What does this fold into?
Amino acid sequence: MSINKYQKFKTRDRITQGFIWLFLLIALFIFSLPFLIMIASSFEEFSYVLPYPPKIFPTSLDFSAYQYIITQHNFLTALKNSVINTSITVVIAVFISSLSAYGFSRIEFPGREALFAVYLFTLMMPGFLNIIPQFIVLKNITFIPGLPNGLIGSRFGLILIYVATSICGNTFFLRGFFKTVPKALSESVVVDGGGHFSIFFRIILPLSTPAIGTMGIFALQGFWEEYFTAKVLVGANENMITLPLLLQRLNGEHATRWEWVFAASILALIPVIILFIISQKKLVIGGLTQGAVKE
Amino acid sequence: MNSMSLRKKRFHKGLRGWLSALPFILPGLILVTVFIIYPMLFTIRISLSDYRIVTGDITYIGLTNFKNVLFETKEFWYAYRNNFLYAIVTVPLIIFGGLLFSYLVNNLKHGQSIFKVGFYLPVITSWVIVSLVFKYMFGNSNTGMLNYLLVDVFHILDDYVPWLYREWTGNGAIWVMGIWKNMGWAMLIFLAALQSIPKDLYESASIDGAGIWAKFRYITISAVKPTIYFVMVNMIIGSFNVFIQVMLLTSGNPNGTTSVLQYLLYNRAFSKFEFGEASAIGLISAVTIILLTVLLNKIFLLDEKESGV
Amino acid sequence: MKRVFLVITVLALSVFGFVACNESTTVDSNATTTEEQITITFWHTYGDSEEAVLLDTVLPLWNAAHPNITVNAVRQDGSQYHEMIVTSFATGNGPDVARLDISNIASYAEQGGLVALDTYDDFATLAENYIDGPLSTSLYKGSYYALPLDTNCKAAVINMNLLESELGLTEVPATMEEFINAAASRGTYSLSVSGVGDWDLYPYFWLFGGSLTNDSFTQATGYLDSQDSIDAINEMLTLHSQNIFTIRDIDGTADAWAGIQDTFVMFFEGPWYSFSEDIVAAPIPTYEGRSASVVGGEDVAVFATSQYQDAAYEFAKFLTSEEVQLAMLQVGQLPILKSLVDNETVLSNPTWAVYMEQLESAQARIPSPNNDEIKTIWSNAMTDIFLNGADVATTLSNAATAIDAELE
It folds into this structure.
């Protein structure tokens, strides 16, 4: 390639890059409008009615709404509970789902497809109505030491339900990824005399960390904002309050202080954003099997 | 004799398969059976019954619930129609937008993360919050952002539009929100797929003089086809689970013309104590999704390996 | 790798164990019941200020009088309260006693979720203390399933500045005719209502002479579809077309709470509106000499799933005592006791006085276990009339037939 041609190629490339940037920036601005409105409104004080004219950019920096939220007596409890519930749930859900996905993708057993079809079917049934039977089951699980009255109102019960509801979807998601890992790779382990557990831990898991991480993030945000199950299962126990439950309380009986709601929403959003920013670089970089293929 | 031993052999092989699979699938299987499958069987039973919630009495009444849901009022059909419209309108746009943005982001040399995070923000924001903001944007009169912009700032319209209180503008708002909320997710998934395409494929295409569009069409699209299917199935399931934005934006108004199945189900169960009819709606919705998924699988002609389904 | 996994598993399990152990102390306080000491759970949806009075004033009073019954007051959020109650019916994990919206009592009673309180010996004497309207809200099939707890109704909320500058009136008009005359030439909406639901439109419907059912709430045909009712709706349609009266959800006009600041002169709202010097409460102006409003409020009911129904009933009675009623009045919960109607505290507050006066002409919504269906029938009919321009007489006649079916 001559230098001249290379230069031309580079300039054209720069212009293209510029256009992509510009296009994406405009798109991002439009996408961010609802957030801008939220942030701008959280700095206002507009007892019960939204501000007129509508604001996209804050006109003042009044943090009193944030202060109100943070000084709520149960804010820290709610934050703590949300963090604990979500993190434990995600770790356990992801681990159990990875195991299941391995079983469904790499091990032949009779009825595998049928069982997997049942898993898929459950994904398509609306989950609302499950709450009543789930509740009754939890109430009757009385054999766990330390919890003689069943699992209602306990963190353990809530996490159990969260984990259970996420298994089918996660298994579906991960099974697809596990299938893309070339069989040849696992055969090397088998030749070495390793069993399924070796393949799982030495090949599949390391190769699938991006996928598993991605799924973890997907799962996390769902639990983080979950309201209804938490409300039904632990709502009566003030020590177990979570952020979404606290947020709902800001809706008054007859009218809503919007700046409180928006400030609380932004506060609840921050940890998730931070986590996503930290993890996004590692999430899906380089693809899943690419590295393996090159070896 | 021979077939007997063959059967025995097969049985043993099956048993061995189960034994080696069990450590992997058992933890999930127990949880799913107890907390998902059992409740669903309960739901199916309730759909055929008259269920009194306080006493827990369940009286079998055949298909009455289904009959009531399907033929008593127009509500169901509006909701059913709206779920399909939601899927037809939002799914292609989500896929198209997700592909476009992921492709552009993937081609960026610098600043990929900014856009990745930026477009993903709607996904990690809770539906409730997002609905509140959208309610404000599509609000009545000049307190709504859209009305304010269209009438007071740009003078495009003469009169304020009651967006959320009319059949089509209300549905439109629900669609816009669905697209906005889900596009980032599709983008992230597509980005994963794009990044697994070997870089040398693009490089050699560039040297051959292929432009950005040609590369997109011949390399990208063919490589992400299974991913498109994956996203599509997920989004279609999602289309039949639309709920919170309907409840918070329009509540099905006017007269149920912006309702959807999940909202109808919730309303039947918790406002009208009709758990039987609610369960029937749930089942109809599930069967519909399954039929759609199978149909799409046929259309896409993906073989089992590719689709991951 | 295997070791990492082992570590993670152990960690996860120990966290689990830790959490589980931690929980055991907080789970169920009923379990520690001895013969004397019991705990009952009370659900409510009070806001911040009401909750403060409940916790700081009311409960200490209770504890002093009933040291052996601890009340665990659980604040629920209003938006999902009904769903929580319904779910608790099914799971049996509800409260012992709860503050409930009056319009839901009949349907909860029909489901078998509430205890009939008139089986208690002292109920008859107790009932005589309550104002009739609020008491009647707990009546279902001849039994009382709750005690009235607080009451409210809609009164007129008027922007005095706009009343003068826009309508040229210096005083709150006593009659609707006067208001309409003054507003007719303004050219923009002066009177606003949020939607077409029962709580929104019933006051107007009644004010202009309409009626829903007979007095015993058993029949809608002959009432909802009567000429008077048709005329009432037509009057509203006329006002609507004259740009005097706007329905937010039909016209897309501003929210009343926002619009009253700069556009609307009047709307009807409960005592929870944040009144100011310029925006005041007034009795709803009469039309053809008739006044009207709609009754709202809450009852307190004992749950059928409660283990301690007697204690719960005792607590419910306590909440309706003069002491507690006066304490809650401080945060705007209007009392339901006859003895407090002329109480000085009530009358000395101009806003409360207006609401107490308005209550006299306020009517209850149809008490029926099917109130949700009836609500839907009504609002669908009103949407058809106001939005889709449906024929008034036909629509009302169909609605009346449909409501009859729900009242059977």
Remarks:
- Chain A has two domains: 3-62, 66-294.
- Chain A is about 70% helix and 0% strand.
